[in-house]
Hints:
alpha/beta; CATH 3.30.1330.30; Alpha/beta knot; 2 domains; 8-stranded parallel sheet; 5-stranded mixed sheet; 11 helices; 13 strands; elongated
Amino acid sequence: MEASEKRQVITSRQNPFVKSVCGLAEKKKRTDSGLFRFDGIKLLREAVGSDIHIKHVIYREDAESRIADIIGSMAERAVAVSAEVFDKITEEKSPEGVVTVAYMPDKLHRRVPSEDICNNVRREQRILLAESIRDPGNLGTVMRSCYALGIDLLVMSRDCADIYNSKTIRAAMGAIFKLPTVTVDSCELACAVERLKTQGRRVYATALHRDSRKIGDTEIAYGDCFVIGNEGHGLCDSTVEACTHPVIIPMREGAESLNASAAAAICIWETIKAK
Length: 275
C-alpha cells in the first residue's frame, strides 16, 4: 500500500489542528507560538532549500503528486486535508493546494535596541533602512529588491508591517527566507542612524526638504545607505535631522510620487553601484 493511502485525511473544518493553522493568520497567534504560515509550492521549496525549520506541510489531497518528493522527506510532518478544509485554511484566491507552517527564523530576523544597532551591523555590510512602511506588500517588495540587488541587511523601525504577514511573504517571493533583517525598538530610526554614522557611514534620508539634493548629484561611497519612509507621510523630522543629508529622486513635473518599494529599488541600485 502507498504512503498516501495510509495517511488519514482531515475532513472536518472544526478540527483543532485546522483551527490552529487558521489562527496563524493573526499576528498575535504568530508571535505567541513562534510559528508562521505561507501558501504555495514555490515558497515551500524555497523554504526547504533555505533550511527553514518546517513544522507542518498541509496539502489538499489532490495536490499530493506535485509535492511527493517533499512529503517523502518529511512524512511525519505532512498533513492531508479535504478540499473543503483546505479552502478554509488557504489565504490565496487561486491556491496551489499547499500551506506550510514553519518556525520563525529568529537568527535571520532579529529585534534589537536602537542603541545596539552597531553590534548587529558589520561595517562591510550593505544596508537599507526602512521607517514606518506599513503596507505589507510594499515591505515584501522592498525585501525582494534588497535580496535580488545585493543588500546584505534591512534595518526596520518597529512599526513597519509584520514580515510574517502573508502579504509580505507573498511579495517578498522567497527573500523572507534569505535576507537578514534587524528591527529596532523604536518607531523612529534617528538613534539607529546616529549609531550607524559612528561606523563611518553616511546615511541619506529620502525626503522632500529645503536642503534636498538630487540623488544623482550625490556621491555615494561603499557603506553609505538610505532611509526609506512611510508611503504617505515620509520620514519623521528627527530621522531626517539625524541623517547626513536628505535626497530626492528627480521626476517629471506633475508625476505622482513613487511608492516606497519603487523608491527603495532606486536607492538600492545607487548603493550597490558604490565602490
